[in-house]
Amino acid sequence: MHISARTTVAAAALALATAGIAAAPAFADASAAQEVPGAVSGTLNTDEEARVHQEVGDAPKVEMYYHGEKIDSRSDDLGGAQVCAEVSQDGTMECFDDQEEANSVLAERAPTPESREGAAVQAASKAASKAAPKAAPKAARAAALRSSWLDCPKSWVCLWQDADFKGRRLQWPTYDTAKTRHLDQYSPSFRDKASSAYVNRPQRGVELYDFRSGMPDPHLFLGAGYTRYPNFTKISYAYGGNWNDKADAIKF
Ligand SMILES: [Ca+2]
Q1: What is the pLDDT of residues 41-70, one digit of tens each?
Q2: Are 94 and 79 in contact (CB under 8 A)?
Q3: Which residue ranges form the domains of the chain, and what is each CATH number?
Q4: Residue spans of alpha helices (H) in the chain
Q5: Is the pTM of this model over 0.85?
Q6: What is the 248 CA–ligand 1 centroid distance (Å)?
Q7: What would you measure as the largest C-alpha separation in the chain, in angstroms?
Q8: Nearest 5 degrees, angle CA 83-CA 87-CA 89?
Q9: What is the per-residue pLDDT across 233-245, written as a single tens digit (0 to 9) for each?
Q10: Rounded CA gap, 34 and 48, in Å?
Q11: How confident is the model over 110-127, as pLDDT tens digits?
Q12: Rounded distance from Cα 217 to ligand 1 centre (Å)
């Protein structure tokens, strides 16, 4: 693991990650999730930048399937799908109409046992609420009101197109080691679209990158520990402004 001694951002990120781990025991459930209005934002040093560029530089386009067919790369709405999830270590994504469809498929086909379990738990809780007709009206109201960050299953990392965990989203499972994907690998691209995020796991934070030419690349560290980031417009960006619709790559 490479840790730069030179940047205070790396040190701060590490501190945040450690705090996240300490604050969230391994068995914490979604109710323990904490909202983090800001996050650790800074720029990469030369070494870090070279490493990230190498990781995503030659990466091939990622296939995205929706109901068995590849999504048209020109689509600006994921072909109508609401959720796309990585189902293979090669980056392949499958896309779904809604939460229910996503969880029922991912419970079987997600690429790690933890990510299958996360989807299965959500699918089961949905089925349980359906099977309790007495509670149904109340449950339906609660479902309509509840924050959609709860849609991101445990052991997954989710990025939404809109603030407050709304709109179409991409989600990634947790592997043994971190992986980096260029958001432009997706077809249609998810570059410059992310507006909110949820890191639904106890350990290992997530890093977003914005690739700039002629200046150090800004990066944004999202700590682990079931943390959620509802609005990237509230997170300041290295060269002024904010992180909304800026992310070009994700390390998860
Ligand atoms: Ca960008």
Answers
A1: 899 999 999 999 999 988 888 999 999 999
A2: no
A3: 8-251 (2.60.20.10)
A4: 8-23, 46-57, 99-109, 113-130, 136-145
A5: no
A6: 5
A7: 62
A8: 135
A9: 999 999 999 999 9
A10: 29
A11: 999 999 999 999 999 877
A12: 10
